[in-house]
Write a structure and sequence with these properties.
Strands 1-4-5-6-7-10-11-12 form an 8-stranded parallel β-barrel, surrounded by 7 helices. The two termini are about 15 Å apart. The chain has a single domain, classed as TIM Barrel (Alpha-Beta Barrel), CATH 3.20.20.70. The longest helix has 14 residues. The chain is of the alpha/beta class. Strand 5, helix 3 and strand 6 form a beta-alpha-beta unit.
Length: about 250
């Protein structure tokens, strides 16, 4: 049985960690390098850094941040935000990222997934998908959730897996920041329809939500932000509780 992973997510804006609800109303949560060090010390399995305000002009800032984080921690970390080319991926991996997360650029140019997987290996390529329910159907959204599309979540997930993505990071915009639990029905369907790991994102509020997403949602990993950032749940406590539920967890 593969070990279930606990992944704190640091949303980065202008060099600081921020957190909001339903992708809006952002508030400051701290220095990303110091937070990364603390999470590594707490035995997080991985970290995810998402530059939510990334533009081409900020690429250097993100690359510099990756260098600082790589020097501070000894666990895998994924970097995303504004990545739109093979060159962008190469810079971030060279600076110490273990994986990259690509969202809007992959949707607009799906061939980018094939190119990155071929050049760097599927294990480095995470495709992030933000989606919400529109008229009863899960629809993909772009640019930090700001632009809706007509594309079905599950159709897009199957395509990215076929193109060589190593993992899918699925964020339910409807659940993001609500602390009411993950979108487990959608997550379970994703796990059934694609043959790559699924990271659950959006909705973590209590330990039972992690238990639910690993069991009912069939998630391979669970990502959360504010409950870790603001000390509502500690990672060591969470892992002990999950272990007691007979889940495969790295303590």
């Amino acid at each position: 049985m593969l070990t279930k992973r606990i992944i704190p997510c640091l949303d980065i804006k202008d060099g600081r960690t921020v957190k909001g609800i339903n992708f809006i109303n952002l508030r400051d949560a701290g220095d990303p390098v110091e937070m990364a060090r603390q999470y590594a010390d707490q035995n997080a399995d991985e970290l995810v850094f998402l530059d939510i305000s990334a533009t081409e002009q900020k690429r250097k800032t993100l690359a510099d941040l990756v260098l600082k984080v790589a020097a501070a921690i000894d666990i895998p970390f994924t970097v995303g935000g504004g990545i739109s080319s093979v060159t962008d991926v190469a810079i971030l991996l060279k600076n110490g990222a273990d994986k990259v997360s690509i969202n809007s650029a992959a949707f607009k140019n799906p061939e980018l997934i094939n190119e990155c997987a071929q050049q760097f290996g599927s294990q480095c390529i995470v495709i992030a998908i933000d989606a919400k329910v529109i008229k009863g159907q899960w629809k993909v959204h772009l640019v930090g959730g700001k632009i809706p599309t007509e594309v079905d979540l599950f159709d897009w997930a199957k395509e990215v897996a076929e193109r060589g993505a190593g993992e899918i990071l699925f964020t339910s915009m409807d659940h993001d920041g609500t602390k009411e639990g993950f979108a487990n029905k959608a997550l379970a369907r994703l796990s059934e329809e694609v043959n790559i790991p699924i990271i659950a994102s959006g909705g973590a509020g209590e330990i039972s939500h992690f238990v639910d997403t690993f069991t009912h949602g069939k998630s391979d990993a669970a990502l959360a932000a504010s409950i870790f950032h603001f000390g509502e749940i500690s990672i060591p406590e969470l892992k002990q509780q999950l272990k007691q539920q007979h889940l495969a967890i790295r303590i």
